[in-house]
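Hey, quick one: can you model this chain's 3D structure?
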Amino acid sequence: MADSLEGTQIPAFNLESTEGKTVSSADLRGSWTVLYFYPKDDTEGCTKEACSFTASLGMFQKMNARVYGISKDSVASHRKFIEKYGLKFPLLADPKGDLVKALGAAKNPKFLAALLGLPARDTFLIDPEGKIAKVWRNVDPEQTVNVAFEELKKRV
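Sure thing. Here's the predicted structure for all 156 residues.
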C-alpha cells in the first residue's frame, strides 16, 4: 500500500548540515535523494544504519543520488557521530522536529522512543523534481540501504 505522501512535493525546509551550511528542500532538486530519519546519534541501530549507508555510498553516488541522515540531535552531536564512525555523508539537524512532524516521522512505534519524542526510522526517496517517490515506515536499520537502493535502481 502506498504512503499518502508519495507523489507529493517534499515540504519546504531549511536544516543545518554537518557540512556547515543550510540544506533546503530546494537544494534537493536536480538529483535523486535519500532522506532517512533515525532516532538518535550513536545508538546501536542508528550506528548500524549510518555505517551501512557509508559503506554503500559509492553505489548511490554512481546513480547521481545523495544521502542525508536526519534526527533531532544537534549539529555538534552529529559531528561527533560522524567522526566516531567515519561517516561519509552529511547529517541534518531538525532539533524542533519540524520536518520530522511534516513527514509523519514523529510516530515512533517504540514506547520509550515515542515518550522521548524521538523520530521513527522512516526513509524517503525524493525524485529530481523534489517529489516524494517512495516512503518506507519503521524500516529495519539493517535493511534501509538495500530497500532504498533497490527502489532507486528501478527508477533511474
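One thing worth noting: The first helix runs from residue 44 to 62.
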